[in-house]
Amino acid sequence: MLRIAGGVCLSLLLPLVGCAGQPEFERMPVLPLVMPGQEAPDFKFITLDGRQVTRSSLNGEPFVLTFLASWCEYCDKQAPDLEQLYQRCRSEGIPMFLVGINGYADVLAKRAQTHHLTAPIALSPEMADAYGVVGVPRTFFVNREGDIAWISAGAGPNVDLERGLERIL
Q1: 158 and 150 in contact (C-beta within 8 Å)?
Q2: What is the pLDDT of residues 100-137, one digit of tens each?
Q3: Which of 54, 94, 128, 132 could make an S-S bridge to 34, C-beta 3.0–4.6 Å?
């Protein structure tokens, strides 16, 4: 009986082992885990209207980054809250950017127009990787010290976005 059980266990493990004897999951890329309290990763991107933005160009000011995808239904649902957040950030003098993680710039711009989003937009899958974004929408609130103060994941209630903004004011 023990031999059968051992054989069953081995047969269940074999699909995980590649030709070189390494488990398949070890070959998959691993994104960094970025958490509140950690320093925000550096970045450089160009907005769709041609503005180059780097973390250092924000001169130590707090800022907000929201990562979106062209196919994301939750991003569509959160669009009114994101626009409200952008207007509040603007009135407080806090830069906010929408960062597309995939697709084409024209598709991203059209989608933003459809949902009445007026925040500056960039397309940067590399930046999403640096921030460890695996699900969208995801909003990072970065304080004056350059640390991530709050992360809002998914299309949660607007109060979650407000809480993040309060932490960087």
Answers
A1: no
A2: 998 888 998 999 999 999 999 999 999 999 999 989 99
A3: 132
**SS3 label, residue 159:** helix
Burial class, 4, CB count within 10 angstroms (exposed 0-12 / middle 13-18 / buried 19+): exposed
Where is 168: in which H helix or E strand? helix 158-168
Radius of gyration for the chain, computed over Cα atoms and rounded to the nearest angstrom: 20
Assess whether the previous peptide bond of 137 is cis (omega < 30° from 0): yes
Query: Residue 30 and residue 58: Cα distance in Å, rounded?
Result: 29
| Total count of residues recorded for the chain | 169
The total of other beta-carbon atoms located within 10 Å of residue 92's CB is 12
Query: Please, what are the domains in the chain?
Result: 36-168 (3.40.30.10)
Strand partners for 67: 99, 138
Query: pLDDT of 3-30, one tens digit each?
Result: 444 444 444 433 333 344 444 444 445 6
pLDDT tens-digit readout, 52-89: 999 999 989 999 999 999 889 999 999 999 999 999 99
If you search the block for the tokens 């998959």, which residue do you land on?
28
